[in-house]
Amino acid sequence: MAAKEPSSEFVEWCKEAPISTAPESKTLANLISDFQQTEQRRPNIEELTSILDNEIPPNFDLHITSQNSEYIDHTIIIDGNNQETKAKLNIRSDIATCIILKNIHAKKLHLSNLKTSILRIENCWIKNLHNINNHPSIKLTIKDSYIGDFHANQPSVCGDLHFAGGGILGMKISPPKTPNPFASSVAFEDTFFPRHTSKYFIDNAQPYRNMRHHLMSLENETTASMFHSLELAIERENDPPLNKFISICYEMLSDYGASITRPLNWLTGILLISLLVIGGNDGASLAMKIDTYQGWQEALTDPEAKFARATTLIGHYIFNPFGILGTKSLVVPSNGFFLFWVMLQSLFSTTFITLTILAIRRRFKLKQ
User: Fold this and answer.
1) Residues 6+ apart with CB under 8 A from 276
2) Looking at the structure, do residues 228 and 266 belong to the same domain, yes or no?
3) Which of 45, 144, 206, 229 is at 20 to 30 A from 215, Cα to Cα?
4) Backbone angles phi, psi at 287, to 5 degrees
């Protein structure tokens, strides 16, 4: 599944002026204290979840301390129901637990000093996501969420980072030769990233270059290749016309050598078009006398076997481009137009096969 571009509504929401600091600002301790005054006891995990769903003010600090030990090994869920936009959410945890943020619109989400084992962000809109001084064992999963500006410019932003769907429209990443903000696996699956500077919040290729450097230091070459492609796409905005044209073609055909499937898709497409053009117009003729065809070859002599002859002709020009392995063939183009067509198909097929082989080698090459 291809990455989905963010809606114009989200982009405009990010561009809106930030919410002024609201007078109401609470912490998790405040919410628990309010509950205790009413119920004369601390809330259980289900009651805490209900409170978090309904009573979070625009400014909220979720700080889970050792005093909240009854919530260890439980999942704390905050569901914003896509309603009121939050000005700022602070998420901190001194104990190991699981925190899930769902359907929240927040101008700023601040993750700091997290010792929680798992943090999941699902279906959220976040203008600014800041990660600071988190425990390197934290697992951060972001699913179907869009982030206007992703900050990872300090060490130990997180351990595992898995981004599935959604998108990141701008990044601030610590430069090369500084401590790596990531401690373990980093993966992006069907995640949207800008490939130009005109519409979103990426100003130049440097954030992508920084990400590539940190990922290469983790020997995460697969994800680093993705950021290298993004980097080249941004850089071509300042290239001369010829370089820009070559860059666009290279990106379209193989994502700068990072995609194995893209050249295969192009190859499949051109072969299907050739089959329709040649087979549909009986563009392949017998190359020899009918009585010289034997065995399976006799099927080619049937006047109705137009697509069988077309398949044979196409296959000959794929596996024997330009007659390098010999000029003898069971079928030949019917006229000059079909000769030109199969020669052109041979050129493109060879290009796509070469790009596929290079992408496979790049993907599975063993680093020294």
Assistant:
1) none
2) no
3) 144
4) -95, -15
Residue 3 lies in a domain: no
Residues 266 and 228 in one domain: no
Range of the domain at 214: 8-238
Domain count, the chain: 2
Which residue type is seen at 263?
P
Q: Do 199 and 272 fall within a single domain?
A: no
Q: Please tell me whether residues 228 and 325 are part of one structural domain.
A: no
Contact 108, 58 (CB under 8 A): no
Whether 249 maps to a domain, the answer reads no
Structure tokens at 104: 């929240």
Coil, helix or strand for 172?
Answer: strand
Query: Which residues lie below 8 Å from residue 96, measured CB to CB, with a gap of 6+?
Result: 72, 73, 115, 116, 117
pLDDT tens per residue across all 368 residues of the chain = 678 899 999 999 988 866 655 556 777 788 888 888 888 888 887 887 787 777 677 788 877 777 777 776 677 888 877 666 777 888 877 777 788 889 988 888 888 777 767 889 999 999 999 876 677 778 889 999 999 999 887 776 777 889 999 999 999 998 988 888 888 889 999 999 999 988 899 999 999 999 999 999 888 988 999 999 999 999 998 889 999 999 999 999 998 888 899 999 999 999 999 999 999 999 999 988 888 888 888 888 888 899 999 999 898 888 776 555 456 788 889 999 999 999 899 889 989 999 999 888 887 775 54
Q: Which residues of the chain form beta strands (DSSP E)?
A: 25-27, 59-64, 75-79, 88-93, 98-102, 105-114, 118-122, 125-132, 139-143, 146-152, 160-164, 167-168, 171-173, 186-189, 284-286, 331-333
Q: Are 10 and 105 in contact (CB under 8 A)?
A: no
Clarify whether residues 221 and 334 are in a common domain. Answer: no
Distance CA 52, CA 81 (A): 11
Residues 218 and 273 in one domain: no
